[in-house]
Amino acid sequence: MATITSLGIGSGLDLNGLIDQLKDAERGKLEPIKRQQEQQQAKISAYGQLQTSLNSFQDAVGKLNDASLFQSLSTNVRGEGIAANATADALPGRYSVNVETLAKAGSLATTRVDSLDDVLTGENATLKLSFGAGTETSEAVINLEAGSTLADIRDQINADKQAGVTASIINDGTGYRLALNSKTTGADTSIQEIGFTGLAAGMTLASEGDTKRVGKDALLDVNGVTVTSPTNEVKGAIQGVTLTLEEEGSSSSVVVERDTLAVRDNVNGFVKAFNVLKTTIDKLTSFNGDSSTAGELLGDNTVRTIESRLRSVLGGGVAGGELSTLSQLGISLKRDGTLEIDDKKLSGLVAGDQTAISDFFAGSDKQGGLAGKLDTTLSQLQGNNGLMKSSISGAENRIESLNTRYERMEATIERTIGRYRTQFSQLDGMISQMNQVSSYLTQQFDALDYQLGRKK
């Protein structure tokens, strides 16, 4: 009997189609697992969105948990010629600043030499630089190598970090001069004189008086008080304020005041970040009755716990200070759970009593104010052993377990389909044999009828 190589050939039945239908029916057992996998993956993605909003809220909280924010000052310069920057040590006030002269660095050039190739130094050559103004002087000595040209001397000066000057070579159209510039401004660092010893025979190199530019201190007056400074960055003339002088002969007004804008911006940022968090939670826990669609975290215990703990801290306020609740700052809780700011009330408090606001948000230490309490709560919720991490880990573990179940179910289905294929193959062969027997018997009966017919 011929071997059947394809299902249905022997029997004439569509056994391959039947196998496919049975396989589809068996694989239907995988659909519930796939739906659970998708649900857990969607939950992990939703936790990620929630965590992003929590992180943004914690960043906004952290800015209010810094007492220096409420002590910050701003400077406003009216006029030209200076810039001003205040630190926490500054005191609010108004100052008139007139700049008479800017600080300048001194410079000096030597007598000229005819060629850059001329050897200028012999053995034990040195260069001595004198700095200062009047009788108050200082010196720097630079040892020079024998056989040095003007370019070599320039390089050796620039390589000496203690020289206090930078060196260059200038061609004045007749010859070459060594030009020295003080590294810093001010009269005390002005170059008074240069002196060479140990020059090569026949060589002279000395200060050229006509090329000397004396270094100067900056001269200004602040509210009528004369101030001198060796640099154009003047510190201490106004307490806690650094003045940067930019133009001689300029007059400006410097106003130092509390930086109310920074406080208002950060309080508004706090409210905005909380409202974004609340909107995210509402979206993830929503339910639409018309379409019967639900958010990925509807009924999730993690979200309920986070909301409950944050509401508890926000509603609890701070005890012991002039301000104890958010409503006293003009921040109220709306019916939809978001926060709303009364800008007029907040601006009045910021302008009049930043210390009270500082005590409310920042407190006397990092945990004392409302911001500190919120930061502690958020850190606990999102820490390595916190609720968010454990919830995400739980969903990931469930996905891993579902993956294992899926693989096992697939293997079971394949074995079942293989068993069906074997049984159908046997059935196909059996029907094929029966068909052959039937055909044989039909032929025999037909032959018998024929013989009987002839005998008649």
Automatic annotation (TrEMBL):
Pfam entry (one): FliD_N
Record's keyword terms, sorted: Bacterial flagellum, Cell projection, Cilium, Coiled coil, Flagellum, Secreted
GO CC annotations on file: bacterial-type flagellum filament cap; bacterial-type flagellum hook; extracellular region
Family annotation (InterPro entries): Flagellin_hook_IN_motif, FliD, FliD_C, FliD_N
Residues covered by the Flagellar hook-associated protein 2 C-terminal domain: 215-436
Listed GO biological process terms: bacterial-type flagellum-dependent cell motility; cell adhesion
Keyword Coiled coil in record: yes
Main location: secreted
Top-level taxon of origin: Bacteria
Flagellar hook-associated protein 2 N-terminal domain ranges (all copies): 11-105
Coiled coil spans: 392-419
Subcellular location(s) of the protein: Secreted; Bacterial flagellum
Quaternary structure annotation from Swiss-Prot or TrEMBL: Homopentamer.
Biological function: Required for morphogenesis and for the elongation of the flagellar filament by facilitating polymerization of the flagellin monomers at the tip of growing filament. Forms a capping structure, which prevents flagellin subunits (transported through the central channel of the flagellum) from leaking out without polymerization at the distal end.
Similarity remark: Belongs to the FliD family.
Protein name from the UniProt record: Flagellar hook-associated protein 2
Source species: Vreelandella rituensis
